[in-house]
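Can anyone check this?
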Amino acid sequence: DAGLKYLAGDLPPGQIMFIRGVIAGFALVMATLGTRGAAALKPQKWGLHAARGLMAAVATFTYLVGIGSLPLATATSILFASPILLTAMAPVFIGESVGWRRWLAVIVGFIGVLIIVRPAGDAFQWAAVMILLAAFGESVRDLITRGASGRETTHSMLFSMMVVVGLAGLFVPPYDWPPLSGEHWLMIIMASLIWTSAHFLLIEAFQFGEAALLAPFRYCNLFFAAILGFLIWGDLPDWLTWAGSAVIISSGLYILHREVLRKAPVMAADPVHDTAADDDGAAPR
């Protein structure tokens, strides 16, 4: 994300999306061919992959538009609203039952978002709305993922997402892409490879560990985002941003806790259920 923020200050979003998609997609293909074979990259439901990729493209575009004007830690905090939005949309789109406790956590989480965005205050920035739209895109992408059958491999879903996001970059104005300097190439290659590596590490983690144990580690992103934002750009979030972040994180962790309790009877009845199949391990954007 720090790499994307750096690039967003010099390059148009479409150019970043396309080049990163090409580099990350190539790296994923090479890694998959050496471990799982070409069959792991083949989609079963092309429409589902296309819809999922389009929502990932929306999330990536809006994130790139917003990240250039916000501290990295602030953008990261707003993105934490993604699982909260997912919980709120699940009853409408996939008919999932959400109890009053999780609805209360959703409301509290949205209050945390409002604390950070401050729509009625002088500190309001439209860039924060773009990051919130990115969180919405990620939530819809994950809802579509839940509709995937067990035949869809993680590798195929990641690859199709990278391809669609990359191709979408070709249609995003402005179209007069500037030439890349050596520094730009170094940064975008590094960001693309880290992005791909992060996907694989998450996949491995969810294959061997319990989701309830691993999911809270995503909130470590805020710690690293704050450090990188300060070291590279001198950004320090204000106390309201930290307060809103604490509210969002607490809400997300409580929703996760209720999810674990809800799924516990199912897991007990089906001890061989593969939790990794329910989560593509996809990092944001």
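Reply from J.R.: I decoded it. Residues 239-269 form the longest helix (31 residues).
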